[in-house]
């Protein structure tokens, strides 16, 4: 049996270059099917998404190292897995709860729902840990804590424990920006300045206010989301 037949269909021995070819092909196949399955596969990772991701990794790893498994067989299985995952995601959008799990409320108005905890198989320690991560250290502060379909716990605090917003205390509105680099490693980012409607004169004035006369001495200057100019010296 030729080396190419072993590469494609499997056999007892595979030359070293064959393993390299298999690994390269399967790597790009995994990249392709990840793109086909969309950002949901990476960002949301619901139950069936997780199983497919684990299955794809396991199948690819075994086909890369075991010469008795053929490359064609591996590609067919991976494409089938991705197709089934796309179908399940479509069904999940059309019929919510039919394919994947529904959200489960764990805390309602400060009261821990014991029945739902057991249903979700979440311990008290795990729940308290998730609350602390969300900045709620006591269940009494929580209006709702919900175990989402992707396994994460979302927390909504009671009104009196929510952070104060500018509109709540009627402060004047201020501009909000996405963070933009204005200087990086001593080089002024003129394109970002233009996008923000600013110019080099404005930047130089701000630097002078901080006692900096030369932009080349700045490692990073960034306009933060609240309009504050963050400056880090080049030392």
TrEMBL record:
<feature type="domain" description="YetF C-terminal">
    <location>
        <begin position="94"/>
        <end position="223"/>
    </location>
</feature>
<dbReference type="InterPro" id="IPR007353">
    <property type="entry name" value="DUF421"/>
</dbReference>
<keyword id="KW-0812">Transmembrane</keyword>
<protein>
    <submittedName>
        <fullName>YetF domain-containing protein</fullName>
    </submittedName>
</protein>
<keyword id="KW-1133">Transmembrane helix</keyword>
<keyword id="KW-1003">Cell membrane</keyword>
<keyword id="KW-0472">Membrane</keyword>
<dbReference type="Pfam" id="PF04239">
    <property type="entry name" value="DUF421"/>
</dbReference>
<dbReference type="InterPro" id="IPR023090">
    <property type="entry name" value="UPF0702_alpha/beta_dom_sf"/>
</dbReference>
<feature type="transmembrane region" description="Helical">
    <location>
        <begin position="16"/>
        <end position="37"/>
    </location>
</feature>
<feature type="transmembrane region" description="Helical">
    <location>
        <begin position="71"/>
        <end position="91"/>
    </location>
</feature>
<comment type="similarity">
    <text>Belongs to the UPF0702 family.</text>
</comment>
């Amino acid at each position: 049996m030729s080396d190419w037949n072993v590469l494609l269909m499997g056999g007892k021995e595979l030359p070293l270059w064959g393993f390299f070819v298999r690994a390269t092909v399967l790597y790009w196949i995994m990249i392709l099917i990840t793109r086909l399955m969309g950002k949901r596969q990476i960002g949301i990772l619901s139950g069936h998404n997780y199983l497919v991701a684990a299955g794809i990794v396991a199948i690819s790893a075994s086909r890369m190292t075991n010469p008795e498994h053929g490359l064609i067989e591996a590609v067919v299985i991976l494409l089938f897995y991705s197709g089934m995952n796309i179908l399940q995601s479509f069904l999940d959008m059309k019929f919510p709860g039919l394919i994947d799990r529904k959200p489960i409320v764990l805390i309602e108005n400060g009261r821990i729902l014991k029945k739902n905890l057991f249903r979700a198989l979440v311990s008290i320690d795990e729940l308290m840990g998730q609350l602390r991560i969300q900045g709620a250290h006591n269940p009494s502060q929580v209006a709702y804590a919900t175990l989402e379909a992707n396994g994460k716990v979302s927390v909504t605090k009671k009104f009196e424990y929510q952070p104060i917003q500018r509109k709540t205390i009627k402060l004047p509105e201020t501009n909000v920006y996405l963070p933009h680099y204005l200087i990086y490693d001593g080089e002024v980012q003129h394109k970002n300045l233009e996008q923000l409607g600013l110019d080099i004169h404005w930047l130089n004035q701000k630097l002078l206010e901080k006692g900096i006369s030369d932009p080349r001495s700045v490692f990073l200057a960034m306009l933060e989301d609240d309009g504050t100019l963050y400056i880090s010296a080049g030392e």
